[in-house]
Amino acid sequence: MSGKVKKVVLAYSGGLDSSVIVRWLIETYGCEVITLTGDVGQKQELEGLEKKALATGAVKAYVEDLKEEFVRDFVFPALRANAIYEGTYLLGTSLARPIVARRQIEIAHKEGADAVCHGATGKGNDQVRFEMTYMALDPDIKIISAWRDENWSLNSRESMIDYAERHNIPIKSTKKSPYSEDRNLLHISHEGGTLENLWAEPPEDLFAMSVSPENAPDRVTYVEIAFEKGTPVAVDGEEMSPARLLDHMNTLAGENGIGRVDMVENRFVGMKSRGIYETPGGTALWSAHRAIETITMDREVMLIRDSIIPRYAQIIYNGFWYSPEREMIQKMVDESQKNVTGTVRLKLYKGNCMPVGIKAPVSLYSEDLATFEEDEVYNQKDATGFIRLNALRLKMQALLKK
Hints:
Blueprint: E1 7-11, H1 16-29, E2 32-39, H2 49-56, E3 60-65, H3 67-80, H4 92-111, E4 115-118, H5 126-137, E5 142-145, H6 157-166, E6 180-183, E7 188-191, E8 221-228, E9 231-235, E10 238-239, H7 242-255, E11 260-266, E12 272-278, H8 280-296, H9 299-307, H10 309-317, H11 324-336, E13 342-349, E14 352-359, H12 367-370, H13 382-401
Helix pairs in contact: 1-6, 3-4, 3-7, 4-5, 7-8
């Protein structure tokens, strides 16, 4: 990007990269910098970040709690769709980027800023997710992608540390974790380092949100999750806000070794990469949601909804949360959930998450119809014509072969 910039809103974590970018923006563009730190449940220390941003050169610093919005407006809509990417990934990072980018645009409008900036590298998916959201919500906003900017020359951690020291930018320990990690209320991801060797098992000290199944308690944990129209609303009879409910389920499921994933995924930019994910609460809620659907959703409605799960998940993964196709699918998904109300009892044990009880006020399950005992509801002789009609095309194929 080139051209004059007067005021920019930067996605700011307070780490090395974003701390350096504050000063770099001022030097490169001669602009005012406003920082946004969005708390989506990353569990990092947010206290002092406003002071640090201002000390680094920002004219204003926002530190905002976005946890409830994140779970209510992003995580739970995806849960209602049973969204899962490439059969494994519950989209933790993919869902967190659009809410931060959305808030950047809102602050830009509030503060009269003409640009937004992020610190995602040019190799990953996050650059796409940030910028797709920027463009969808404000097509006229200027976008600065520091790592792809023609003026950016700080292409190593060492060069950024040197830059920070030259400009007296306060940074924490310069010891670099061997892994790249990203955490929010839905999950934590681990990439890079020794994980790039696909034959290497992830070391146990890598994990942060879950114990290993081997070290999980030698006792069963039961938990009851209540849903209303496909959305979790209560745990063990206690109503909870979206963020509190997910946080609570993270604790319960994580203590029982649930939600670990080791996968090689296809990034939108074209490469394959290995990711280690911990999604304890999300995994348990996903399992419970599928269970309650089995007695509350019509068979053909479920078949159609399930057929679009891969596409819906890909849309989110690729950064198109604010696309017309995602919004269209979401409306269809939410329509399919209008009767998905009830309670599921889960059995958590050493990495396993098993639905062991389901009940719903409006259920399509009939014990009278399903029973193997004698009944007066279902006439078994009716199946004769049903089978013959369905086999008609198969018989025609067989006749043609003769």
